[in-house]
What does this fold into?
Amino acid sequence: MKTIFVAVTLTAALAAPAFSQSLGEQTGVNSALGITPKTEDFIKEAATSDMLEIAAARIAQDKGNAEEKKFAEQMITDHTKTSGELKDLAFGDLKSAIPSDIDNSSQKKLDKLKDAKAKDFASEYDPMQVSAHKDAVSLFERYAKGGDNAKLKDWAGSTLPALQHHLQMAEDMNKARK
It folds into this structure.
C-alpha cells in the first residue's frame, strides 16, 4: 500500500509541471506572470483566438453598427490570413495539431453575441474585442520573446504589429461607444 501511495505521489509530482503550463495558459496566469507559452499552447491559443475573431466578426456583420461592420471585415480578412499561416507552420515544420473547433469559453462568448439584441450588441462586442486582442497581444509578445521554435517565434513577432493595431482599433471603437 505504501508503495502504491509513493508511486501515485511521484507520478503526480512529475506530471504537475506539464499540466500547470497548459492550465496556466488557459487561466491567464502565464500572461499575468509574463511566462512564455509552450509551443503547443501557443498554437492552440492562437488558433482558437483566430476562430473566435472570425466567428464574432461574422455575427458583427449582421448585428453591428457601421463601425463594427467595418472592423469585422478587417478581422475576417486578417484572422483568416493568420489562421492559414499558422496552419502552414504547424502542419509543415512542427507536425503539430491545431484545434478544429472553438473551445467552451469562446463558444460562451459567441453565444452571448448571438443572443444580444441589436441595441445591446455594441456593449457586448466592443469590450470583448478589446479583451480578446489584449490577450492575443500578450500571447504573441511572450512567444516572440521566448518561444522555443525559431520559425514560429519569428512569425509571432511579425504578426504582432497587426494584432497591436487591432487592439488600438478595438479600444477606439469601445471608447466611441461610451
Helices lie at 2-27, 29-33, 39-63, 66-94, 104-115, 121-146, 150-177. The chain has two domains: 1-35, 37-177. The first helix runs from residue 2 to 27.
